[in-house]
Amino acid sequence: MGVSSEEAAELKRVPNQESDEAIVAPSGRFRLYLGAAAGVGKTCAMLDEGRRRRERGRDVVVGFVETHGRAHTAEFLRDLEVVPRKQVEHRGGRFEEMDLDAILARRPQLALVDELAHTNVPGSRHGKRWEDVLELLENGINVISTVNIQHLESLAESIEDMTGAKVRERVPDWVVRRADQTELVDSSPEQLRRRLLHGNVYTADRVPAALTHFFTTRNLTILRELALRFVADETEEALLRQLQNSASGPVETGEHFLVGVTAAPGTDQLLRRAARITARTKGDLHVVHVIAGDSARTGDQHALDELEALSVALGGEWSTLRGDDIASTLVTFAKAHHITQVMVGSDPGRKWGIGRGGGLRELLRQAGKANLDVHVMSLPRARGKAATEVAAPDDG
Fold this sequence. Notes:
By secondary structure, the chain is an alpha/beta fold. The protein has 13 helices and 15 strands. A six-stranded parallel sheet has the order 5-4-8-9-3-10, with helices on both faces. A five-stranded parallel sheet has the order 13-12-11-14-15, sandwiched between helices. It has a two-stranded antiparallel sheet with strand order 1-2.
């Protein structure tokens, strides 16, 4: 059987820090198995694909897989080469992490790396495993990995609110969307709960709490719907790219969104909602903070820094502008960047909410003249505290 296009190395343009020119460097292909929750079978699917490719003559290694005591998962590891883990010392303890340098030195054609959202032990070269994966890809090594839907940055807090379970580890949306192929590993809520009861997901002592808290039929149904919707959106986007490159000519591009943000509490939720809408409409996202007057209040800077980091994680482009007339500044930016949709938050503690002293009326007036649609979303005074008695399972 021949080598699939998925396994072939693609070329990526890498910006040269010394000049405006770019050099051509090899980039690995990235395949991702996505599931609604732990136990749906993502790791087994990844290992099974690795074994199939090895049987076709590919050079495959297991970079990191945690079986969590599952005999069925351990069986899929048979005959696969496993790169020994790295021992990391932290606060008097010894921990095992993926040995990134050993994989780079080994230079396989394909590395299997489980649990993309995993947080590495402090002292590791990268803080997150997804950063390790990106380095492997940048060095021309193909990677297959796994992730649960709750770990997407744009969905994590909404899932916390809906399920009452904390999501401790998160992956920027742009990293997940960086995958050349995303495949859903699906399981019905009833089937997954049966797997729990049969001991195929957790050890017997953990099953009762799991069934009562995170793995309820309601929660699993919510997570499954979100996973199905995400993969459907990614499939549609891939189809649009193919149509744009086909002989039939270009297709209509997505919307261009502008989100006006302040340091007000709840703005992060506005930003996440905007990112989800943008992704669903295949658009692009501009996040704009307008500084009215000579400078922003120093007390706001920490909140703004966090919003900027979140914008990048969600795949948006951050801009800080100065202008005494906030509405006029936003509309001018929108015209220059061909924006079609503007989103702002309305704080229930104020009459209007796009900046101190109001401005929403004026924004609506000027946006109407510029043929811009404006969406006004309610901002909560403070984010509701999710239940902390159980954390969303990060494994499997």
